[in-house]
Amino acid sequence: MPAPDLTMTAFRLSLVAPLALVACTAMPDLVPPAAPTGPAPALQPIDTLLAEAQVDTPPADAADGLAARAAALQARAAALRAQRLTTPDPATLTGG
């Protein structure tokens, strides 16, 4: 009969020990939450709610600003792709 593998025995013990400890604990009393008191809220038509909602409209120049930012980020990404390193240079990797 071969000798028992100690790592497998330790692995099995690490699985069984927490289960044995959990089985020894007392089960807490789970009480359902109390029902809210008072009348239920009144339902309203969605059209009324949407008409009362405040809608924030973006400024007129927001699209131009976003397009400029997107173009700048795409140019930056292209520049980073162009200087991709083939071999690690410690001075470049450390920022020095």
How would you describe this structure in keywords?
4 helices; 96 residues; mainly alpha
Describe this structure in words.
By secondary structure, this protein is mainly alpha-helical. The protein is built from four helices and no strands. The protein has helices at residues 6-23, 46-52, 62-82, 90-93. The longest helix has 21 residues, at 62-82. The mean pLDDT is 81.
Sequence of secondary-structure elements: HHHH
Q: Helicity, in percent? A: 40-55%
Q: Give the termini separation.
A: 62 Å
Task: Choose one word for the global shape.
Answer: flat
Mean pLDDT: 81
- Spans of at least 5 consecutive residues with low confidence: none
For the sheet with most strands, the description reads:
none
What is the β-strand count?
A: 0
Please state the CA-atom Rg, rounded to the nearest Å: 32 Å
User: How many helices in DSSP terms?
Assistant: 4
Topology, please?
Elements: H1 6-23, H2 46-52, H3 62-82, H4 90-93
Summarize the structure.
It is built from four helices and no strands. It is 52% helix and 0% strand.
